[in-house]
Amino acid sequence: MRSRIPEVALLFESRLNGISNVPDRFYAPGSFAADVIELSRDESQHLASVLRKSPGDVVTVFDGRGNAAEAVVETVGKRSATVRIVQRLPTSLAVSP
C-alpha cells in the first residue's frame, strides 16, 4: 500500500506558505439565480478580515441545499462583500430510498 505521508506533508507545507489549491467556501443561503451574490455580514467579515481575500480571488459559495458555484470576489468591505458566479458546480444526485 502506498504511503500518503508525502502527499499530506506537501499539502501541509503549501498551506504554511499560503498556497492552497482548494478555494475557501462561503455560505450564501439565497438564490443562485443571479450572477452576483452579496455575502452576509458574518461571511463578509470572515472573507475580509480573517482570510484577507481581495477582488479577483476565487472562492466557492454554497447554499446548504446542494447548490454550489465557483465565484470571483468583486467587492470587499469590512461588513459587506460581493462575489460573481463564474461556474455553477454540478449538484450531487439525490439518492432515493
Explain the overall architecture.
By secondary structure, the chain is α+β, with helices and mostly antiparallel strands. 23% of the residues lie in helices and 30% in strands. It is built from two helices and five strands, in the order αββαβββ. A five-stranded mixed β-sheet has the order 1-3-4-5-2, with helices on one face. A hairpin with a 4-residue loop joins strand 4 and strand 5. It is globular. The termini are far apart.
Write the layout of secondary structure elements.
Layout: H1 5-16, E1 25-27, E2 36-38, H2 41-50, E3 58-62, E4 68-76, E5 81-89
Parallel strand pairs: 1-3
Antiparallel strand pairs: 2-5, 3-4, 4-5
Order of helices and strands: HEEHEEE
**DSSP strand content:** 25-35%
Distance between the termini: 35 Å
The proportion of residues forming helix, as a percent range, comes to 10-25%
Kindly state the number of beta strands: 5
Q: What is the structural class?
A: alpha+beta
Essential attributes:
97 residues, alpha+beta, 5-stranded mixed beta sheet, 2 helices, 23% helix, globular, disordered N terminus, disordered C terminus
In short:
23% of the residues lie in helices and 30% in strands.
